[in-house]
Every structure is written in structure tokens, then in C-alpha cells.
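Could you help me review a protein record that somebody else here produced? This is what I was given.
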Amino acid sequence: MGAGAGADIWLPSINRAAGPLYLAIADAIAADILSGSLVGGVRLPPQRTLADALGIDFTTVSRAYAEARRRGLVEGRVGQGTYVRQKRAPAAVVASGLIDMSMNLPPRFHDAALTARMWSGIADLETSGGLDLLLRYQEPGGAAADRAAGVNWLRRRLPAVSVERVLVCPGTQGAMLALAGALAGPGEAICAEALTYPGFRSLAAHLRIRLVEVGIDGEGVDPDAFDAVCRTQKPKALYCAPTLHNPTTATMSLARREAIVAVARRHGVPIIEDDAYGMLPKIAAPPLAALAPELVYHIAGLAKCLAPALRISYLVAPDARATARLAGAIRATTSMASPLTAAIVTRWIEDGVADAVLAAIRKETAARQTIAAALLPAGAAIADPEGYHLWLPLAAPWTRGEFASRLRSAGIGVVVSDAFALAQPPEAVRLGLGAAATREDLTQGLRIVADLLDQSPAMSSMVV
């Protein structure tokens, strides 16, 4: 522990065997700010004084102070020294040493009344659902009440959907597992965007399904590229995310959606439509399933628009026969969605909590996009104001690996393009705006990203 508020007598308590020494010192600064041992405005020991006291070299302390500055913990004053910048270290930094922009999840909103409504709906299930929610199995496609609630939720995107075509699945991954296995066997091909969701990549590898790259542009899947793949590869399906594509943020226009549907119809290729982000835009183009209901399998997960931990998604099949076949696939793979979590979602949809949560997520998303637009260099990131992730192409001489490595050393986690690429990855990274616990944490992280973009790899490198 530090020595308290004395200006030049603070000494960090560090574990010299735990990793790089400069990071241990920066972490000690963060911990002592949190505990109150260091308070705002306190002057830290001069770098050489601290180096001598710890018996280490001057450059290690210099690098530690630079790391603390990058985290927003301290500030340098010309001719005066280094001072604590704030009273408490941001929670995301103190808890793990990392501001996580690698996870793509809804931003946390701060609405005590809405939070209370969410928990109240869960508590009410004790009397309305009883032990059957814990001690009974249900049909693999979900109970009738849960499927009906799913229809009510989906009708704002798919007005003609019916209960006979809806299945309740254990998350989008569970829906994709049942669906991909039903449409393609080992060695057969499913085509997907050149940059595609990593969860579908891993699922295809597990099922030994070949993924065939389809070229993309600023609107997503290129119709001509899709047509060429259909002619040469004879795929069993197309997997795509037409709205707020992960990672590029692209959204297909209505004309593009109609062109993709036309190609699929011409070749008789079913479409797996991942509509994970489809509820986020207030006004959105119709899903592919609304344009070609006989051809499209529509997956509407709730992780990105309500609550990731509930692991519930709705799978809309083209007809009742396909629904029955997929219910069998769910039984064979994941058995069923959790009755308890499905009941929570149903209650939230019925009492209006789901709509309120969606509105709160939209509001917080807009605020975080405003922060990103203000802090990042103009034109640096590709973004949609209604989504909560950014796609950041990198200009030479930066490479994606080096950029991500420098960010990690500064306490920022991002995802490099390799996670999404079916072929040669571009020099780019994805930044999630939702994982940071607060707007302050996000602001701190984006400032570090912006500072790094203003430097070259050589300038940002510090060799001890």
C-alpha cells in the first residue's frame, strides 16, 4: 500500500514476479487512488527518487508514469512534476487493468426505476410460474405462451409472422447450431460475408461445414459476388447479417436486400438471416424474411437489444413443416431453451419492460456514439449512430496486430480483423462502445485510441 497523501514519500506495494514492473507500478497507482491513499492533486515522487527508493532503473519508472498518464490517472505539469489527476480510478481500470472494447454488448444504462421493474418482473414469476419453471421440461421449441410473446416482439419487424413459424431457442448460437446442421452436412458449403460473425465461424468448424467467402462492400453482401459463388460452389445456404453488420457496421438498403433475395431465389439457396441488431434502429429496412418468407430463416436474438445473460432468441422458419424439422434439431442439439429465462423475457414483453429496456439501450448508445465522434479523428472510424460498435481501418505503417498490442499495453482491449475474416484480413480493428461500465471509462479509453492514431508505431514504442 502507498504511504498516503505525502507528496514525495509515496511508495507502491508491488509484486515483482507478477509481470512487467512498469505495469505493476501503474496498477499500484490506480489501487491507491481507489483506496484513498492517493488523492487528487497529490504530487507523486520524482521519477529518479522513486527509482532509487525501489532499487530499479529510471526508465522503468518513466514508463510506469507514462502508462498511468495513458490511463488518465495522473498528469504531468511542466517544471512541477507528476500529479494525481482524479480522486478515484475508473472501475474498469481498477477491476482488471483493462478497459474492454473487445466485447460487443449493449451499453449499461443507469435508470433505477427501470432496473427495479426488471427485477420485479423476475420476482413475480415465483407465484405465476412456480416450480414448473425449474422442475419441468418443455417442448424444444418453447412453451406456447413464450412463442406467442415472441410473435408480439417480432411483429414490429415481421408483421405477417405466426406462432406456427416461431421457435424459442437457447440464444442465437443455439439457433444457428440447429439450423446450420439441418441445412448442411460435413464437407458441404455455406457461404458467408468475407468478414463474418466469429461465432458462426467456430460453429461451422465444429460441424465441419465449409464456409465460402462472399465479397462485401459498404452495404454488405455484394449481389454479383453472391451470384458467382452460387454458380461455382453450390452452397446449401447464405449466412448474413443485413442490419448493423458485425464488424463493419454496414446496413443493406432495401434495393440491396431485394437484389440478394433475387439471387437466392434464382439459385434456390436458403438464407440464414442473423438479425441480432435489427431492433436497434428506430426506422429500419424490412428484414430479408419479410421480402422472401419462403426462403429465409430469420434469427432474432435478444442478447444485443435486451440482455445477453438471458440467452434467448427467436427462430422464424419459412413454414410449419420447417418449424417441426427444426424443433427436432433443437431437441437433438440443445434440448430446449431454459424455461425460466424464456419466462422472464415473456414477462418483460407482456408488461412493457422489454420496450423500456430497448429504449434505454438506444438512448445510451446514442450518447456513446456522440462521445466517440467527438474524440476520434474525423473519418477515422466507420460507424452507424444507432449501433454500439465501430470499425477502425488502419493506415500504414500501422498493422492491426501492432495497434492492438499497443492498446493492450495501455489498458485497452479491442478485436483485430482476423477474428472475422474468411480470407485475407484487412488492417482494421473493432471497438465495442458498450462494454465500458460508464461513459467516463469509455471517454478515457477512446482518448487513448485517439492519441495512438495520431502517432506512428515507432513514436509510440518505448524500449526499456
